[in-house]
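Below sits the subject:
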Amino acid sequence: IILFSQQQAQRQQQLQMTYETELKETRIAELEKTKRSQRIILVLIILIAALVTAALILSVLFSRLRQRLNRSERQKMALEASRLKTDLAYRDRELASITLFQEEKSKALTEVKEQVRKASLSADAAALKGILRSIDKLSTGEGLWDTWVLHFKNVHPGFFTQLLKAAPNLTLSEQKHCAYLKMGLGQKEVAQLMGIEPDSVKVARFRIKKKLGLDSEEKLTQFINGIG
């Protein structure tokens, strides 16, 4: 009986050890599984963080690149606008020079006309009258105006078309006046070019404003600068 009891106790001890060993192995396996899961989660977190960081870096780089492109485009547009403005100012000065030259030429012809008129008192009246008629055409602007308009249209294409569309009843003299305003000429310069007094320039502008339906000098200037 004692031997049986000892054998039974040994078996129970072995079963307990086997149970404890299996329990430990199960716990170790679970721990290993948990560690693997944690490692996988950690790797995923690192990958997501790396992707988010890369996306942010790319977004910043793209934003900077876009800003540089926009700045470069703005600089190009500013340079082009400056070039066009300079070119337009040069053409306006050239046109003003042509205008002044033509007016001086007209004045010179007027003086010659007066000299010829005085000479006609003692010379061949018929021949001299023919000369006077030819000079008359030049001094009144016939032939000169067409040449001047060609130069002006090269600088301000469409100006006269838009002007006459707004006020079809403008006279040739009023069209000239508007063109001089477009060139930025002052009141005294306009008076000199048109051979009239400065006060007459004010009267002419009043008539032009009335035909265009404008009520102030400022609005006239804005309108003229806004066409062509």
